[in-house]
Amino acid sequence: MGKREVVLRIVSDTPPPRGVVAAGPVRELVPYEAVSSQRTIEALQGSSPIFKLDWNESTIPPSPKVQQSIVHHVTNGPGLNWYPELSSRSLLLALSDYTNVRPDQLMVTNGSDDALHLICSTFLDHDDEVVVPVPTYNHFVVFAQSKGAKIVPVQTENLFASNIEAIRDAMTHKTRLLYLVSPNNPTGVVAHPEMIEELCQDFPNTLIVLDEAYFEFSQVTGIGLVQRFPNLIVTRTFSKAFGLAGLRVGYLAAHPDILENLSRIYNPKSVNTLAQIGALAALSDLDYLNEYLDEVIESKRMLREFFAQRQGVEAWITAANFVVLRVSDVKDTLRQLEGLGVYVRDRSSYQGMEGCIRMTVGTVEQTQRLIDRLSKVFPER
Ligand SMILES: *Cc1c(COP(=O)(O)O)cnc(C)c1O
C-alpha cells in the first residue's frame, strides 16, 4: 500500500480572528487531500520499473523539442527576470492554427483547472444552479461550490452509457451552468457534437462548459460550435496527450462576449514563460503527438483482448487514455498491483462505481510489460 499522507491539524481553543475565517461557501468545503503515488514512487527509484498509472498523465516525456526550446530559452534569454509574454500571445496564435478557432475566441490559462476556476469566478453567483452529470472531475465541483453555487448531480443507472436524456430532464430555465466532461473522467463517456449543439440551442440561457481534457485521444470535439453558440465554453489542456502536466498549460475557446467577461479577472501573466515556450514547442511537433496517440490506441486494443480472457475483472476500455476495471476486492487488488510496481487510482468510493479502479494507458512497449504483471493478479478464464 502507498503511504498515507499524515495531515496534522492544529486545533486551538480560541476562535480564529475574523479576518482568517474562510469566506462563506469556502467554509463549507473540506480541504483537498491529494492522493498521488508520486512520493511513494520517488522513494522507490532504482528498483524495477514503476508504472505510475493513477493520474492519466502521458506515460512518456513530451516531444524532445519541448526540452530543447526550454533549454535554449534559459541559455539565450530573454532572461527569467522578465514577466512572461502577456496573455501567452504567441502560443495563442499557434493554438488558433491547431484548433481552427479564431484568436479572439481563445484564452490560454494556467492548466485547464485555471480555466474552470476562472469560469466559476466570472459566471457563478450564490445559489446558482449548476447541473453536473456524475461521477465527474471533482475539481470543477469544488470551484463551483466555492462560489456558493448549488450542484444538481445527474446520475444514471448505467454510468458507461450516454446520459443525455437524464441531463435534459435535470435542466430547467433556472440552470445557470452545465458542466460536461467529454470523454468523461472517470467513465469515458463521450458527448457528441450533435448533442452539444442541441443543448446549446435548447438552453440558450445556460452556460455550457465542455471539458475536453482528453480530446486528443477521442478526436471527438465540440470546439467548432463556439463560432455559432454564445453560451458554450470548451476547455482543453496540455497535461494529458501532450505530456506537459508539470508545466501547467490549458486553454479555453468561447464566443468573444464570454472572453470579454472572463478578461475582467483573467491574469495575463498567469502562464509562466517556460510553460508557454514548452507548449509552443509541443504544438510544433504534432507527429510526436500522433505517434503517441497511435500507441495508446494499440495499447487499448491489447488491454481489451487481455481482459476478455481474464476472470474476476470487468473492464471498460474508454475513448480516453484510461481504462476502468471492476474487481471483487479493491483493497486487495490495489495491494497486489502496488506490490508489482503498478499504481492505479481507486475510484470505488464514487456512487455507482463500487469495486472500480482507473488505470492510465501508455505505450505498446509499456503495455506489454504491464500485461505481464497484470497476469499475476487476474487469472485466466
Ligand atoms: C486532468 C483533467 C483536468 C486537469 O487539467 P490541467 O490542465 O492539468 O489543470 C481537467 N479536466 C479533466 C476532466 C481532467 O481529467
Automatic annotation (TrEMBL):
Domain of life: Bacteria
Catalytic activity field: L-histidinol phosphate + 2-oxoglutarate = 3-(imidazol-4-yl)-2-oxopropyl phosphate + L-glutamate
Pathway noted in the entry: Amino-acid biosynthesis; L-histidine biosynthesis; L-histidine from 5-phospho-alpha-D-ribose 1-diphosphate: step 7/9
Enzyme class: transferase
Residues annotated as domain Aminotransferase class I/classII large: 51-374
Molecular function as annotated in GO: histidinol-phosphate transaminase activity; pyridoxal phosphate binding
Record-listed E.C. numbers: 2.6.1.9
GO biological process terms held by the UniProt record: L-histidine biosynthetic process
Keywords from the named record: Amino-acid biosynthesis, Aminotransferase, Histidine biosynthesis, Pyridoxal phosphate, Transferase
Complex and partners: Homodimer.
Entries under NCBIfam families matching the protein: hisC
PANTHER family membership: HISTIDINOL-PHOSPHATE AMINOTRANSFERASE, HISTIDINOL-PHOSPHATE AMINOTRANSFERASE 2
Protein name per UniProt: histidinol-phosphate transaminase
Organism: Microvenator marinus
